[in-house]
Amino acid sequence: MAAQLIDGNALSQLIRTQAGERVLQLQARGVKPGLAVVLVGDNPASQVYVRNKVKACEQVGIHSVMEKYDASLSQAELLARVEALNQDKHIHGILVQLPLPAHIDAQKVIEAIAPEKDVDGFHVASAGALMTGLPGYWPCTPHGCMKMLEHIGYNLRGKHAVVIGRSNIVGKPMAMMLLAQNATVTVCHSATTDLKHHTLQADVIVAAVGKRNILTADMVKPGAVVLDVGMNRDDDGKLCGDVDFEGVRQVASHITPVPGGVGPMTITMLLVNTLASAEQTLHA
Ligand code: NAP
Asked: What spatial distance separates the first Cα and last Cα of the chain, rounded to whole Å?
C-alpha cells in the first residue's frame, strides 16, 4: 500500500491559525510581535525566501520589518544594523538571510544577534542549548520535521532514526532533536561508506543532502517514515527533493512530498519562534 502523505501545507495552515490566536493574545497584553528580516545583495532565491517570510508574518499578524541592502554593504555596517535591531523593543526576532556576500563573515553576523532574538536558531548559544537540553530556539527546518512526526503521532522512543546530512542548520540539529525524543540516531554524510546499510535499518529517515534520488526504494525498510528536506530541480526544472518519491512511497508508511512537505513548515516554525520570543517579553 502506498505511504500516507504528510501534508506540510495543511499542517502549516493549522499551526499558523494557532499562531494568529497567539498574536491576538499578545496584542491584548500590549505586545505586538515583530520580526526583522535582513537581506544583503540580490540573490534571487534569497529574495523569494525573504518575500515568503514577510508574507507569512502578515498572514498571522506578526509585524515584519524588511531591511534590504546593497551587496556592497560592509560587515561593520551590517553588524551595526544587527546591534540596532538587538536594542529595538518592537523587534522580537532577527533573521539575516543567508548566504551573505563573500566579504562578510556570516558566522560573525549570526553571533552578533542577541540569542533571545535568534529565531533562526543558528547562534552558537542556540546550538548549545539544543545540545544540552536547555531552552532556546531550534532551527526551523528540523523543528518543522519534528512537528510533522508529532502530528502523525509517531513515538520516537527506541526507534532508529537515520539522518542523511550533517549541516549545522539541518542535519546536526535534526539528530539532536531526535535524540532528545529517545530515538537511536545515526548521522550519515558524504564520507559514509555504505549509506544503504544504514538507511535499511531505519524506522525514520530524514534526507537533508541536496542531491536528487539520494534515497531510493531499495534503501528503505518497509513501513519506515521518510522526511525529505532536500530542494533540488529535476530535468524539467521542477522542484524535487532528495528522495525518489514515486519509488519510496510504495515502501514507506509515511512520506513528505516536495513541494508541499517540509518547505512550508520551515517558515511556519520561524513564526512560532518569533511568537515564543515575543511571549518571553511578558515574563521579562
Ligand atoms: P549542506 O550544508 O550542503 O549539507 C549537505 C549535507 O549532505 C552535508 O552534510 C554532506 O556531507 C551531505 N552529503 C553530501 N553528499 C552526500 C552523500 N552522497 N551521501 C550522504 N550525505 C551526503 O545542505 P543543507 O543546508 O543541510 O541543506 C540540505 C538540503 O536541504 C538542500 O537541498 C537544501 O536546499 C535543503 N533545505 C531545505 C529547507 C526547507 O525549508 N525545505 C531548508 C534548508 C535546507 P558532508 O558534511 O560530509 O559534506
From this structure: 52
Q: How many domains does the chain have?
A: 2
How many residues are listed for the chain in this entry?
284
At 284, is the pLDDT very low, low, confident or very high (cuts 50, 70, 90)?
confident
Q: Which amino acid is at 121?
A: G
Whether 145 and 108 map to the same domain: the answer is no
Q: Residues 41-69: pLDDT tens digits?
A: 999 999 999 999 999 999 999 999 999 99
Which residue segment(s) compose the domain that 110 sits in? Answer: 30-114
Q: Are 109 and 79 in contact (CB under 8 A)?
A: yes
Tens-place pLDDT, residues 160-194: 999 999 999 999 999 999 999 999 999 999 999 99
Grid coordinates representing 192?
A: 559514509
| Residues 176/131, Cβ–Cβ less than 8 Å | yes
Shared-domain flag, residues 194 and 248: yes
Q: Which residues, 6 or more positions from 17, have their beta carbon under 8 angstroms from its beta carbon? A: none
Residue 221: active-site member? no
Q: In which band, very low, low, confident or very high, does the pLDDT at 1 lie, cut at 50, 70 and 90?
A: confident
Domain match, 69 and 170 both: no
Residues with beta carbon inside 6 Å of ligand 1? 141, 164-167, 169-171, 188-192, 195, 208-211, 214, 229-232, 262-263, 266
**For 12-41, what is each residue's pLDDT tens digit?**
999 999 999 999 999 999 999 999 999 999
Give catalytic status of residue 196 as yes or no: no
Give the distance (Å) from ligand 1 centre to CA of residue 165: 5
**Choice from 194, 231, 258, 270 to test ligand 1 binding pocket (greatest atom count within 8 A of CB):** 231
What is the best residue among 209, 265, 270 to mutate for testing ligand 1's pocket, by most ligand atoms within 8 Å of CB? Answer: 209
